[in-house]
């Protein structure tokens, strides 16, 4: 037997949304920090590879190092995209929560038309 309730999914989501938005900061900070580390790693490995290629000195990078560099570049770009999307979604949801709620009352008869 179903339990009748006044709370539908939308009401429950509206009640839980402030908690979800306010607690979303820590994972977002971790994603941004991980992406920053990956970008620094890409800059370091890329500069080493470019220096070795342009100067012709020492051993050129092995195939494993180049594959690793490409993987890290892709990881950094994916992390940057996820961080940007998550930041935008969080800002949009916070702005939505700041807006006042509008209630539209239904009239049974409209005589002023």
Structural account:
This protein is mostly helical. The protein has one domain. It is built from three helices and no strands. The longest helix has 36 residues. The two termini are 47 Å apart.
Task: Quickly describe the structure.
By secondary structure, the chain is mainly alpha-helical. It is built from 3 helices and no strands.
Question: Any chance you could write out the topology, listing elements then pairs?
Answer:
Elements: H1 9-22, H2 25-55, H3 63-98
Helix pairs in contact: 2-3
Total of helices? 3
Distance between the termini: 47 Å
Sketch the topology as an H/E string, one letter per element.
HHH
What number is the mean pLDDT? Answer: 75
Anisotropy-based shape: rod-shaped
How many β strands by DSSP?
Answer: 0
Q: Can you tag this structure with a few keywords?
A:
3 helices; 113 residues; 72% helix; rod-shaped; mainly alpha
